[in-house]
Design a protein that fits this description.
Layout: H1 3-26, E1 28-30, E2 37-39, H2 47-59, E3 64-68, H3 74-86, E4 92-96, H4 107-114, E5 121-124, H5 128-137, E6 142-147, H6 153-166, E7 167-175, H7 181-193, E8 197-201, E9 211-214
Parallel strand pairs: 3-4, 3-6, 4-5, 6-7
Antiparallel strand pairs: 1-2, 7-9, 8-9
Helix pairs in contact: 1-3, 2-3, 5-6, 6-7
The structure holds S-adenosylmethionine (SAM).
The site of S-adenosylmethionine has 24 residues, from helix 3 and helix 5.
């Protein structure tokens, strides 16, 4: 990168950081779309969890990311910050949220715009269970995924199984709400039956946990009736 490009990149990262700091400090925000006042936490991920997420984006050198459940975009802002820091040629963050315009009055998209990253974000106002198989048929691929959408077993199970095919082999799937039995069980299926690895779990005494999974680095060659109880 030229010195001008490095200065631009640093200024983009600083702008994202300043929006993150404002939102975390204030804890509330007003939706530009309809003037409603929103309490961001605990719906949005905590500062500690989103820092861990940004670090994983950075550590993996990710430039293509996908997130299930945009909400207030606190997690998405951290992913974008990591993508910008990685300074790849065409960073992209695909975010899904069927309720962004209704339940969230488009606050998440508003914050991304305020942070100057709207251009690298691609939002789909759809359920992940509908969008992910389409991305697969379109041949899309990602370096890292963050999952914080439908928290029921069937929803998370589908998310993880499709992400296992959308994220590069040996790539990262960061899962929120790992303390919930449905999430832990769906992750356990991937580890026991699909060859994924549990890379990191937040502190066991934290009532709100997250986990980091790594997809299998090898093609699935198990027989058609392979099954391990999970
Ligand atoms: C806990 S919030 C996400 C908060 C977000 N991570 C943040 O930091 O602000 C859960 C989000 O998942 C979305 N959601 C629920 N079901 C979904 C589905 N099937 N596909 C995609 N998103 C979904 C909700 O609309 C909501 O935005």
């Amino acid at each position: 990168m030229s010195s001008g490009q490095i200065a631009d990149q640093r200024s983009s990262v600083r702008r994202v950081r300043s929006v993150i700091e404002r939102l975390v400090r204030d804890g509330t925000a007003v939706a530009r779309s309809d003037g409603t006042v929103h309490s961001l936490f605990p719906v949005a991920v905590s500062a500690a969890e989103s820092e861990a997420l940004r670090e994983w984006v950075s550590r993996e050198g990710a430039t293509q990311a996908i997130e299930i459940g945009l909400g207030y975009a606190i997690s998405a802002l951290h992913v974008c910050e990591g993508l910008l820091e990685n300074a790849g040629p065409t960073p992209r963050h695909v975010v899904l949220d069927p309720h962004q315009a209704t339940r969230f009055a488009n606050c998440g998209l508003q914050f991304l715009e305020e942070a100057g990253v709207a251009e690298l974000v691609e939002h789909h106002a759809e359920e992940s269970q509908i969008a992910l198989p389409r991305f697969l048929s379109e041949g899309r691929s990602f370096h890292l995924a963050f999952v914080d959408g439908n928290h029921r077993f069937d929803g998370v199970f589908l998310d993880l199984v499709f992400l296992g095919r959308l994220v590069r082999a040996g790539g990262i799937v960061f899962v929120d709400d790992y303390h919930l039995p449905a999430i832990k069980r769906a992750a356990s299926f991937c580890v026991t039956n699909l060859g994924w690895m549990l890379e990191e779990v937040s502190a066991a005494d934290d009532p709100h946990q997250w986990a980091v999974l790594r997809t299998s680095a090898f093609p699935d060659t198990q027989p058609f009736d392979y099954y391990v109880d999970f």
